[in-house]
Amino acid sequence: MTRENSRRAFLHSVGAVSLTGVTATSSAAETTLTAPDLVIPESAAPNDFDPLPSVESNRFTDALHAAAPGLTSSDIAVAGYWNGATQTDPEWVLSSMAVVADESLPRAPIEAAAEQAYDEYVAEYDAETSSLIDFEQTHVRTDQTTEWGVDMHRAPMFSDRTDGGELVFSERMRYQFFDTAAVATLAFGPHKQDPPVDALVNEYAALQRDRYETRGGTQ
């Protein structure tokens, strides 16, 4: 039986994002900057995290290619890591994704694909989770980033549920948009335990940005 308070195997298909394993596809045209350059390398992952297995596709890439067929030849890479009891039922997930194109990337279809994939993930998670677990979603957009978040609250067995319940798990997914590239950083984990989810996202989003800038990317 799947535990209600952990990340399940189906989550790996969301993309970055949420959503992911480790894989890469290359565009026909060679570019100086490549998508594998911009994901979190295994050497930089937390010491107690293990890599997730390769996947051929995920919800995000499927939604992106449907929304923007012109991006099917873009260079896409994802890399994911986990920590916890088992790989299929981890307590922490750290995931990253990168999309690199030869020309400026359109932000709108990337955001739409990410939001579609994330909403589908949350709906499935909700359907498979106890009715005592509530999901609170957030969405913040700035000039260069878009972030989606989910806080998972557990209500007492006998409660009028007016207090929001106890926060038990959180997830954050941040997209950063540059000129010819977009990168995503996702972290999931238990509340008030190390490493904190927000700290993971901040640290590894900064790492991915640094990798972009040091490889000659432009804003």
Task: Name some characteristics of this structure.
219 residues; eight-stranded antiparallel β-sheet; 8 strands; 29% strand; disordered N terminus; TAT_signal
Written overview of the protein:
- The protein has 219 residues and is α+β, with helices and mostly antiparallel strands.
- It has a single domain (5-217), classed as Protein Transport Mog1p, Chain A, CATH 3.40.1000.
- It is built from three helices and eight strands.
- Strands 1, 2, 3, 4, 5, 6, 7 and 8 form an eight-stranded antiparallel beta sheet that branches.
- β3 (75-83) and β4 form a beta hairpin.
- α1 (59-67) crosses α2.
- The protein is globular, with a radius of gyration of 17 Å.
- The N and C termini lie far apart (47 Å).
- Mean pLDDT is 79; it is low at 1-31.
Largest sheet: 8 strands, antiparallel
Which regions contain 5 or more consecutive residues with pLDDT less than 50? 1-31
Assigned CATH architecture: 3-Layer(aba) Sandwich
Count the beta strands: 8
Average pLDDT, all residues: 79
CATH topology, what is it called? Protein Transport Mog1p, Chain A
Q: Note the gap between the termini.
A: 47 Å
How many domains, in number, for the residues? 1
Q: What is the top-level CATH class?
A: Alpha Beta
Order of helices and strands: EEHEEHEEEEH
Shape: globular
Amount of helix: 10-25%
* Radius of gyration based on Cα positions: 17 Å
Taken as a percent bin, the fraction of beta residues is 25-35%
Q: Tally the helices: what do you get? A: 3
Question: Structural class per helix/strand content?
Answer: alpha+beta
